[in-house]
From TrEMBL:
Protein name: Putative ring-cleaving dioxygenase MhqO
Keyword Cell membrane recorded: no
Organism this protein belongs to: Paenibacillus baekrokdamisoli
Lineage: Bacteria, Bacillati, Bacillota, Bacilli, Bacillales
UniProt keyword Transferase, yes or no: no
Keyword terms: Dioxygenase, Oxidoreductase
CDD domains: PcpA_C_like, PcpA_N_like
InterPro entries recorded: Extradiol_RC_dioxygenase, Glyas_Bleomycin-R_OHBP_Dase, Glyas_Fos-R_dOase_dom, VOC_core
Gene Ontology molecular-function annotations: dioxygenase activity
One Pfam family of this chain: Glyoxalase
Coiled-coil regions, chain positions: none
Xref: PANTHER family: RING-CLEAVING DIOXYGENASE MHQE-RELATED (PTHR36110)
């Protein structure tokens, strides 16, 4: 039997403005900034993580804010849309909230579900859907009470450049099950209750270009370090080319590009974001891996100040 991932661990995207990103994902969407650190490969740039109260796997969206980044183009070989799941009966609240912040929305149907589609300030495509599955969030911020808060990922729409190849990897490597087909979409489901529903767009489209407003990679869950090593062997034996295991401080990671051009990561659930901060202080301080601590003063000097703040629309 093939290995089976529980679903999405995290999704990572490029944006331009760090404060604007904090205002949108915490101020508007009500997510918790659970980690403020740097891009380990480019320490002059933040790496910001947003999720539920603890940054649970299946809730985490992360960003590299490059102030002078080119504008990207969403297209083939990328995650096209990131799907968030909210509690049943709350879509009306979210439509009203997005309208209050003058964020245009579109209402669409797919696989008998209603989606509220919108974009973030850089054009990253997002959508909300109601589902029973998934533990309720315990986090509230600004005008978003915990009982109406985003639970985490519902899943994603993948814009594959070769949908048959992507489907084979999802089924035969990642262990998802194809559960439906509707119009240009094939639907796959993982075993978890968040980040578990993946739609693959089979329609042809131009290849995307990386840059602000695009997803860099989608990461899938491994239970622990032992399972992670098993995943790496499994991916390699499947004819793909995983990287060595990389220590990302809050999880270990391997990366590979599947046949449809999308960059996949497999990340461990532990150790998590309380690895270097107390749970009640997550995201409050700039956290650096030990090998960058001696350069902290220079790193801080090159980073723009940011704060999590209640926005005017919620302060009225």
């Amino acid at each position: 039997m093939t290995k089976q991932t529980a679903g999405i661990h995290h999704i990572t995207a490029f944006v331009r403005n760090a404060q604007e990103t904090v205002d949108f994902y915490s101020g508007v969407l009500g997510l918790r900034l659970v980690k403020k650190t740097i891009n380990f490969d480019a320490p002059e740039v933040y790496h910001l993580y947003f999720g539920d109260q603890s940054g649970s796997p299946g809730t985490i969206i992360t960003f590299f804010p490059w102030a002078h980044s080119r504008k990207g183009r969403i297209g083939g070989g990328q995650v096209g849309t990131t799907t968030y799941v909210v509690p049943p009966g709350t879509l009306a609240f979210w439509k009203e909230r997005l309208a209050r912040f003058q964020i245009p929305v579109a209402i669409t149907e797919r696989f008998s579900e209603t989606y509220v589609e919108f974009v973030d300030p850089d054009g990253l495509q997002l959508e909300l859907v109601e589902r029973e599955q998934g533990a309720p969030s315990e986090w509230s911020f600004g005008g978003v009470p915990a009982e109406k808060a985003i639970k985490g990922f519902g899943g994603a729409i993948l814009y594959s450049a070769a949908s048959a190849k992507t489907a084979r990897v999802l089924e035969n490597v990642m262990g998802l099950e194809q559960v439906g087909q509707e119009g240009p979409y094939m639907r796959f489901q993982a075993t978890g209750d968040l980040g578990n529903v993946i739609d693959v767009n089979t329609a042809s489209m131009p290849m995307g270009e990386g840059g602000a407003g695009t997803v860099h990679h989608i990461a899938w869950r491994a239970k622990d370090d032992e399972d992670h090593v098993s995943w790496r062997n499994h991916v390699a034996q499947s004819g793909l080319q995983p990287t060595p295991v990389i220590d990302r401080q809050y999880f270990n990671a391997i990366y590979f590009r599947e046949g449809g051009g999308i960059l996949f990561e497999i990340a461990t659930d532990p150790p998590g974001f309380a690895n270097d901060e107390q749970p009640d202080q997550l995201g409050e301080h700039l956290m650096l891996p030990e090998w960058f601590e001696e350069k902290r003063a220079d790193i801080v000097k090159n980073l723009p100040p940011i704060e999590v703040r209640v926005l005017e629309e919620d302060a009225k």
